[in-house]
Protein 1
Amino acid sequence: MSNVYRPTWAEINLDHLWHNFEEAQNQNLTKKVIPVIKANAYGHGAIEVMKHLYDQGVRYCAVSLLEEALELRAHFDDIDILMLGPVMENDILVCSLNHIEFTIYDYHVYESVLKFKHSMICHLKVDTGMSRYGFKDVEQISHVVSDLQKQKHVELKGIFTHFATADQDETFFQKQLEQMRLILSNLKKIPPVVHVSNSSSTFKYESKIEFTTHVRLGISLYGLSLDEKKPNIKPVMTLKSKIVQIKELNEGECVGYGATYCATEKQRVAILPIGYADGWIRKNRTGHVQIHNKKFKIVGTICMDACFIQVDETVNVNDTAILFGDLISIDDVAKRLNTINYEVVTQISYRVPRIMIKGDKKND
Ligand SMILES: Cc1ncc(COP(=O)(O)O)c(C=O)c1O
């Protein structure tokens, strides 16, 4: 029996997910793709996404938080899980006991690692220009790498950096790449796993990078990109909700909190059971939704659990509205909200059930 009751859901197309993974893999046949499934797989459902990738043979993934890593470990005992975010000294033991690969990004984390004797698998993160996590000083990096390689309890499996502008500024990107080259050339022994690319760099530059073994694929695994020239990928998430009531408004009658929208003539307004607590934030009030291949205007103020759509005679109770994922894309919504596609999908909240689909199966 299903435990999904509400008529609002996000469809996650697993065939598209795998298509996107393969596109990245086929561009870079000698490199391995590490799917980035932090933040609940960018809102798509981390366990289900990993399960599908696992069934296709994938055995590596990356997350940000230890909580995310442990949730995955509880479901998959034979995959490698890399934690990209910060680790607290008290949690190093938890990583070690659960075989979570963690990131050493600063001297104090390195010193913490030396206090333990439990076996642990680590990656060193270097900062090549983004000024976020990572060691910066080339000599210090050499010293820390060679010291970690001498420690019996530490497996220094990888070294990596992260790009700030792969999707926009090639000059800055190349500067970071050069800095990574310099850092690696200064090492006596390079760790076996070297990874630098995010989605944008995976598609645009990775095939010309000679020193890496893996890429970290985030947003484009979900069929999205910030690049002007989009790779051949397919969006994975479609957000849907069913009309649960239709109001026939007379001229002068208003809808919603603040009575911000009032009918200027006889009008039909449909109520969709999705609101800002679902991540369908109030700023969406200027947009449209799709019903029967046609766009209809959102009117009034978006409530916590509902919003209002101005509809015509063709629309009925129980009809499905597509909030994004077809005529209205995730990028259209990002533009409407003056943000990026990453934020649109990650903000769809836990209250919206994720329904996994394969092929063209539609759940309405
Ligand atoms: C360290 C690191 N690697 C890889 C990624 C994936 O980036 P993208 O989603 O642009 O592919 C992220 C995402 O923020 C990240 O922080």
Protein 2
Amino acid sequence: MPGTELFDQMEIDAVCDVLRRKMVHRYSSHAARAGVYRVSEFETALAKRVGSRHALAVSNGTSALFVGLKAMGIGPGDEVITSAFTFIATVEAIIGCGAIPVLADVDETLGMDPASVARKITPRTKAIMPVHMFGAATRMEPLLELGRTYGIPVVEDSCEVTGGTYKGKALGTFGLWGTYSFDPNKYVTTGEGGAIVTDDEELYTKMEYYHDHGHVHRLDIERGAEDKCGLGLNFRMSEIEGALGLVALKKMDTALSLLRSTKRKVLDGVAGTGLTPRPVPNPEGDIATHIVFLLPSAEAAKRFQAVTAECGMPVGIIGENTWHYAKHWKALHMLSGQSIGGSTAPSYAPETMAQTEAVLSRAVFYCPSLLTSDETVAKMIGALKAGAKAVL
Ligand SMILES: Cc1ncc(COP(=O)(O)O)c(C=O)c1O
């Protein structure tokens, strides 16, 4: 479902405008740019869209997570609880801060199981980071409640769900901060890009400094003459990406309705077959990038996959997804029991993820493109029906 499928003259014009004006840096040349700041415009539009006080555009979703964690002071000796079902960037951002990722199991919603999270809390836990995966929300109330009970901030890896909502509120705006990714695989894409949203003024200021070497950004001070408020790194978004982001936000609702319409057609088409769709905590706010079904067992999922392949529309099995499941990350497993930031990491061996395995090994999915034709929808429905007939 990459947003590039909807690219047209609007993106070409937006990028050419930046190139023609030769203003690719978001902060420099105040006098020459005649008041045009595309990244700032994008931040304002994004914050408005999700209902957050602040949005900071950054270079990608990974850096959004890293900057968010750094700004709240996560460092050596700290533990951050996150999901075993996520993209590896989530744990890399935590490790990048010198902190220890602690992986909680998911339940059938594919979001973190609050009971598993509760079991992982220790005096060193400094954040709980749910990850909203494959288009839908994690159930937020129990996690926010845990956060309140133990005085631990909840932060959201909402990189996969820009535009998604839970009970009418934008995903990414439930915790202290939330992140979005606009990488080339996302339906809202700027090529590479990301953002952090927060209502916390002080935190936002720290993020803003940190993402640009600690520089103070003021329109009355030219780049190079500004003060530094501390150390940071460079995670700036360029004006080219900002311009693309503005167009992507304009197209977001069209993209969402395309994805939702495809999902609706497929779910309607398989009604009565006995197939169980993933229980989605936010049916009205699901961005519908993925269509997931839960089968009775891992064996059933494998047979189901084979039958759908014979129909020319093979489903994926989430448990076999090497990108999004910690069971497959050998580079992380090797850190089991090793020192991270001076503290000892827990075991990340696949056996520690038995509950997650029990769900993901029987979860099958399609990830439709934005421009899925009715013919393809019919083919998907046919394959799913054949699979259901064979295994249920
Ligand atoms: C859950 C999750 N977190 C973080 C990221 C990282 O985003 P990016 O690729 O923009 O660095 C992704 C990207 O796929 C993701 O799916």
Protein 3
Amino acid sequence: MTAKVIAVVNQKGGAGKTTLAMLLAGSLGNAGHRVLVADADPQNTALRWASVGEAFPADVEDLSGEEGKLHKHLRKREDEYDYIVIDSPPAATAPVTESALRLAHVALVPVIPSPLDLWASEMIRDAIQIAREKNPNLVARLVMNQLQPNTLISREVIGLLPNFGIPLLSATLRQRTVYKECAAEGHSIEGLGSRAQMAAKEVDFLKRRVLALLRKVEAS
Ligand SMILES: Nc1ncnc2c1ncn2[C@@H]1O[C@H](COP(=O)(O)OP(=O)(O)OP(=O)(O)O)[C@@H](O)[C@H]1O
Ligand SMILES: [Mg+2]
């Protein structure tokens, strides 16, 4: 099977790209899939996350040096993996981000429900549009991250989303301390065991929504 490629992108720093990429990759790995996290961010936080523990269930490699050739590098390795998850730097127009969007089947854009974060995400929306000139089938979804449900600001920002230009994935990540603990301990969410049951369910649901999206792309 040729790998399906998921690029996690946003111009906004700290939106949750690495957290989303690693939770998703870890959960796919725990489900028995062969998964590569291509750490395309020179900060290498995905790589550091995986290096803390010994048993992160996906390969994580620093590929930030590939820059604009990332898609060519990954194309040569598509048969080694079922899924390739690209964690990108907070730079919408960086060559490595363009390269990731050129290869991806699905682009996920994590957004914190705050107007500032939404405004700062407009550049990636434009970058995705430009990427479609070379990758016309690229499907993109916003992923609400650090959601605090039932707050007025969350509801207000969610109200702005239909006009944003990228549809919202019907799965969110709430603000949860266990997600920070995953990184601190080098685990996937499933690796935290019973203390992270609710979060593991949330990530499992998100994974299923992403897999459904990939199936839809494949069928079209
Ligand atoms: N759902 C969440 N619940 C709690 N903390 C979170 C959540 N998502 C992200 N964080 C925390 O927010 C911070 C930023 O997250 P992360 O590093 O994943 O963002 P990023 O978009 O990759 O940042 P950068 O642009 O610097 O690469 C981290 O401290 C992370 O642990
Ligand atoms: Mg990051």
